Amino acid sequence: MEIFNGRAATEEYMSTHSLTFSTPEMTLKKFALWLGDQVNVPGKNKTIPRLLTYINDVNNQSDSSGFLPDTDESFKPSGAVTDMFKEMTEVAQVKYSSNCHNCNYPLKTTSKFCPKCGSKRH
Ligand SMILES: [Zn+2]
Question: Is residue 82 left, alpha or beta, with left meaning phi > 0 and alpha meaning psi from -120 to 50?
């Protein structure tokens, strides 16, 4: 089975092009054009679209996920940012939680009743 190694293509593009001064639209267009660029086939007197140089022949079909680009857009803090992000999250939680109107016991944002005096949350 031949599959397109999108991971290698995106990583190669990102390592050879600065994305800093480009808009997402422009980056997308440039990447598409880059994939379609005619490139020389080593040892042969012909050119092929660059896309074809990222076609991999895989024997087993079990795991093609290694060839997929990482398109998960959720923010995952890492390294030194992790602690800062955790603090920000905690601050946000404190900000939005409230205290019991009856006994002033701190309530979780999810609790509907005060666990201490049983008053209904307002
Ligand atoms: Zn209470």
Answer: alpha
